[in-house]
Write a structure and sequence with these properties.
The complex is a heterodimer of chains A (about 325) and B (about 325). Helix content of chain A is about 30%, strand content about 20%. In chain A, the strands form 2 sheets. In chain A, strands 6-7-8-3-9-10-12-11 form an 8-stranded mixed sheet, sandwiched between helices. In chain A, strand 1 and strand 2 form a beta hairpin. Chain B is α/β, with parallel strands linked by helices and about 325 residues long. In chain B, helix 6 links the parallel strand 7 and strand 8. Chain B is globular, with a radius of gyration of 21 Å. The two termini of chain B are about 30 Å apart. Classes of the chains: A alpha/beta (about 325), B alpha/beta (about 325). At the A-B interface, helix 7, helix 8, helix 9 and helix 10 of A face helix 6, helix 7, helix 8 and helix 9 of B.
Chain lengths: ~325, ~325
């Protein structure tokens, strides 16, 4: 871009809605979600099961499982509209501009090809390059993600390496095309804590080198805190709070966020009692009227049950969907 | 000091691996390599460690679900394996287990009343009416409406199912609950409910807990004593406060450094050493942690350090200095 005033964000999602038709009615899995992630920045999306965080990621990648479909929304990558593209175009975007890593690496790795061959293939997919060159590139990527002895691991099959190394191999594959956006859906959830720490460190390091934007999805606020610049808290298909990470943890405004942060046991809190959130995440077909958190919220009153509160700015970058937020 | 409720002495368990033609022995998994611990009445011992450390095998051995190859389990000073029939039965009744997965651990064909009554039936406790009363009582204690007793597990959420599993464990009035990662399958907002419930039950009834977890924050919240495990060994064992204030084993320190802290800012590089837990099929010689240990010295590659040091014991040739 020659005379661009402001570069467009690496990823921009506007008013995304995803519906799953079921026998008992349409489930609104994602109910109008908007966010943007700048180059080199990480947005952490945190939520419990059924919050819509994974469906948001799958919609961005054009991989919504049937019968789910996007009923509204525009998705831009580096300023280019990618939502509504055909399958072939979307496959190309996924290879070249959006990389993906998941909780279970075997969803991305093919069990019948060696780890090295798969990374080499991902690397050469959009390049005119010979086999030797692709092999060298794959070896460099294996080394980059700190898999020890890359030349020996190159010919290993996915089942022959540990879970932590499979996660590294999947990261190498996702990075093969130097994507502008990396979507990471619970990539450390199945790992032991020491390996989780190593993977987070690796992602931070690679991000500072390559400058890609990361959308990092997790149910674990601790993990989100360790990687994200900004955090979006999702509940029942909506973003209920959005703020720079330090702000969110220091002064959460939505009663759900406040409760979530307060309920996590932490080292040094032995003699306190954990404040618990009563009830449970509502079934998507049985949401309470108005604010979806109103049936569990200590602040809720009749006004909260009248309409779904909109995400509104409360001074610079902090946005909250709660009509009681100022009172808290 | 009172006598321990349960003590484990030199628990040892290797699982044979079968492979190749005709299922010949192809090696063995060194799950427990001789571990000792004790649980006092009304107190909680946490076994903490990563996958493959042997914590679940230890829990299953205590619960009587597997037989250790060597070592003894003493309940109120009596060896469970050689005790008379009556003593063994009362020990089994006194130790009840709560599993990680509340979906897999409840029989889907039984209603809640039948699930919770099962240990009463197995141990021949009470008659029909007494059992019904007991079931209603423990369901109420765990926050399940006894009127829902005719319903089936699939009608309940994960958190409610874990409450039902806890009610089942409480029904025969045990003295020790063995809880194997009881929070891991639950949503964050439900975990604190269940953790509070366990703490309340312990306070109300003076129950002892053997609590298996990978989460040090939960350990700090719930435990009185902590044993840190690595590849089938206890590498550090201490009262909770002492362990968190001054971890002496480098692996304990690594675990603490790896635990994510909400609101603690971005992860700083270098806090956790490289490398992974070695395979329990082919563990390294010497100290099992030495290939990853930033403090390893030559002795660590040769001999397994002995767990020693009284109340705050650790198995390390070159321990962390006391801060």
């Amino acid at each position: 871009m020659i005379n661009a005033g402001v570069a467009p964000p690496a990823l921009e999602v506007e008013d995304l809605a995803v519906v799953f038709p079921t026998r008992r009615g349409d489930v609104l899995a994602v109910a109008g979600v908007s966010y943007a992630i700048g180059r080199g920045r990480t947005l952490g999306i945190v939520g419990e099961s059924g919050s819509g965080k994974s469906m948001t990621a799958l919609a961005v990648m054009g991989l919504l499982p049937a019968p789910g479909r996007m009923t509204s929304g525009r998705i831009h990558v580096g300023g280019d509209l990618v939502s509504g593209l055909g399958e072939d175009d979307m496959t190309r975007i996924r290879g070249e501009r959006i990389g993906m890593i998941f909780q279970e690496p075997m969803t991305a790795l093919n069990p019948v090809f060696s780890v090295g061959a798969q990374i080499a293939e991902a690397w050469s997919l959009h390049r005119k390059a010979g086999r030797a060159e692709a092999r060298d590139a794959a070896l460099a990527l294996l080394d980059r993600v700190r898999i020890p002895e890359p030349s020996r691991r190159y010919d290993d099959y996915p089942h022959q390496i540990s879970g932590g190394q499979r996660q590294r191999a999947m990261i190498a594959m996702a990075l093969a095309c130097k994507p502008e956006v990396l979507i990471a859906d619970e990539p450390t959830t199945a790992l032991d804590v020491t390996i989780q720490a190593q993977i987070i460190e690796l992602l931070l390091e690679i991000q500072s080198e390559m400058g890609m934007a990361i959308q990092f999805i997790s149910h674990n606020l601790g993990v989100i805190s360790e990687i994200a610049d900004d955090v979006a808290v999702m509940y029942a298909g909506r973003i209920v709070e959005y703020a720079p990470s330090s702000r969110l943890f220091e002064s959460p405004r939505h009663p759900y966020t406040r409760a979530l942060i307060a309920t996590i046991p932490r080292v040094g809190a032995h003699d306190t009692r954990l404040p618990a959130i009563g009830g449970q995440v509502p079934h998507p077909l049985a949401l309470p009227p108005g604010c979806p958190f109103s049936d569990r919220c200590p602040l809720a009153d009749d006004d909260c049950r009248k309409a779904v509160p909109q995400l509104t700015t409360q001074g610079d970058a902090h946005r909250v969907a709660c009509i009681k937020a100022e009172a808290t | 000091m009172t006598a321990p409720l349960l003590s484990a002495e030199g628990l040892f368990k290797h699982f044979p691996l079968r492979g190749g033609l005709f299922g010949r022995r192809a090696g063995k998994v060194h799950a427990l390599n001789g571990i000792d611990f004790a649980i006092w009445p009304g107190r909680t011992l946490a076994l903490v460690g990563e996958s493959g450390c042997g914590k679940t095998t230890a829990a299953r051995a205590v619960a009587g679900l597997i037989r250790p190859d060597a070592g003894r389990l003493l309940f109120r000073g009596k060896d469970v394996a050689t005790a008379s029939g009556n003593d063994r039965k009362s020990a089994r009744r006194a130790m009840q287990m709560v599993f990680q997965d509340p979906y897999g651990s409840l029989n889907p064909r039984l209603n809640v009343n039948a699930i919770v009554a099962e240990p009463l039936v197995i141990h021949g406790i009470g008659d029909g009416a007494a059992r019904r009363d007991r079931v209603a009582e423990v369901l109420a204690q765990v926050g399940i409406d006894p009127r829902d007793g005719e319903r089936y597990p699939h009608e309940f959420s994960g958190g409610q199912r874990q409450r039902i599993a806890i009610a089942r464990a409480l029904a025969p009035e045990p003295e020790l609950i063995i809880a194997d990662e009881p929070l891991s399958a639950l949503d964050v907002s439900i975990q604190s409910q269940v953790l509070n419930l366990l703490k309340d039950i312990q306070a109300a009834r003076g129950l002892a807990f053997l609590f298996i977890t990978h989460d040090l924050a939960v350990v700090d919240y719930f435990a009185d004593e902590v044993a840190v495990m690595y590849l089938g060994h206890i590498v550090e064992r201490a009262p909770r406060a002492a362990l968190f204030a001054a971890p002496r084993h480098p692996y304990t320190r690594t675990l603490l450094a790896a635990a994510p802290r909400p609101g603690g800012g971005k992860r700083r590089p270098g806090a956790v050493p490289a490398g992974e837990v070695p395979s329990p099929i082919d563990p390294p010689a010497g100290c099992p942690f030495h290939p990853r240990c930033p403090r390893a010295v030559s002795a660590c590659r040769e001999t397994m350090p002995i767990l020693s040091g009284g109340d705050h014991a650790f198995a390390c040739h070159n321990p962390e200095p006391v801060p």
